[in-house]
Write a structure and sequence with these properties.
mainly beta, 5-stranded antiparallel beta sheet, 33 strands, 44% strand, globular
Length: 359
């Protein structure tokens, strides 16, 4: 799910659904080639949005017993869905989307490669081979690409040619996009730690926990706000850390309240802050959207649903948008009231009785 210019773009298998901030369907962008066929395949990952185009990754399953899936990146005309170009060299699935910078699109693939494509033509600019799968969306800052791999390395690559500027090695895989603030990258790992890394040279500034790894993976990207870093592990334990030192700010970590008869509130995406910085919002795989008070980590409320949340919510002014699967809604919007102390559900898409393509 991506919010841009007042529109919400949602990957919905055979199409990209474009919603207004009122929940109304604005457009369905269905990829099609010159013959009218969808050669992009099923789309699971968030699209990268240009001025008049989208770049998305899809997968087409083989038709025979011994055939293999085809994994593609396609550029689409944002108005018509026409496939402008298609890149099909990757050998495995795209788990997350890519990023655009100028005339370059960069994306990682489960075949272990990072691919850089020309935005105009789809031609391959360069390939960088890591030692394992690449599941994370890259962060591109000026002429540098920051991207993690399941080979337990975070890489800084030259945007122009893919040369390694530095690499940072950890004790666990990197599966999320790092967050940059004041020259420092903040990122979690499957080694049960959060790291602060110098963006210029890749040196470690701090790690949390310091002495030994924590109990669970940090899958989603952290949220950073001035002197504080917020991170949530896959079991729903939330931490507020000092951005300079990595020390805990809250007296103790905050544990998301699980649903009845469940042990944990599992989380794959990252936390997101409201614009005033007073409320932290986290989407759980149990269907709840949680709101925490950033001052002390106390849980303000949880909004239940029958779906599952796997990605980081999006906040715009006093509204939070949450993408879900396996439930009644693909997207729901909640209005934050009284500074985030309460909420009101605004809408869900699709509305009851309306058909949808995705799960």
């Amino acid at each position: 799910m991506t919010l841009k210019d007042g529109k919400i773009y949602v990957a919905d298998l055979e199409q990209i659904q474009v919603l207004g901030t009122d929940g109304e369907l604005v457009q369905s962008i269905v990829p099609k080639d010159s013959d009218g066929k969808n050669t992009a395949g099923s789309i699971y990952v968030a699209p990268a949005i240009g001025e008049d185009y989208l770049i998305v990754a899809g997968q087409t399953l083989g038709g025979g017993l011994f055939s293999s899936a085809t994994n593609s990146v396609v550029k689409l005309d944002i108005k018509t869905g026409e496939i402008i170009w298609r890149f099909g060299d990757a050998k495995s699935q795209y788990i997350e989307g890519g990023a655009i910078s100028g005339d370059t699109f960069v994306i990682g693939n489960s075949d272990g490669n990072v691919y850089a494509l020309n935005v105009d033509t789809g031609s391959l600019k360069w390939t960088f081979k890591t030692g394992h799968r690449v599941w994370a969306t890259p962060l591109i800052v000026e002429d540098t690409v920051y991207i993690g791999s399941m080979d337990r390395n975070l890489y800084a690559l030259s945007l122009s040619d893919g040369e390694v500027l530095w690499k940072f090695s950890a004790q666990g895989a990197f599966a999320s996009t790092p967050v940059l603030q004041d020259g420092i990258l903040y990122v979690g790992t499957f080694g049960n730690r959060v790291y602060a890394i110098d963006a210029d040279d890749g040196t470690e500034i701090w790690r949390f926990p310091q002495d030994k790894p924590g109990d669970n993976w940090f899958w989603g990207s952290p949220a950073v706000d001035g002197d504080a870093v917020y991170a949530v592990d896959v079991k729903g334990t939330v931490y507020k850390l000092n951005a300079e030192t990595g020390e805990e700010i809250w007296p103790s970590a905050s544990k998301l309240t699980p649903k009845k008869d469940e042990k944990d509130a599992p989380v794959r995406g990252g936390p997101v802050l409201t614009e005033d910085g007073n409320t932290l919002l986290i989407s759980s795989q149990n269907g709840n959207l949680y709101a925490l008070d950033t001052a002390d980590g106390s849980q303000r409320w949880s909004a239940e649903s029958d779906g599952k949340g796997y990605v980081t919510p999006v906040v715009d002014d006093d509204v939070v948008y949450e993408a879900q699967i396996h439930g009644s809604y693909r997207v729901r919007a909640l209005e934050l009231l009284d500074g985030g102390e309460r909420y009101s559900e605004l809408w869900g898409y699709p509305t009851p009785g309306e058909s949808e393509t995705g799960e």
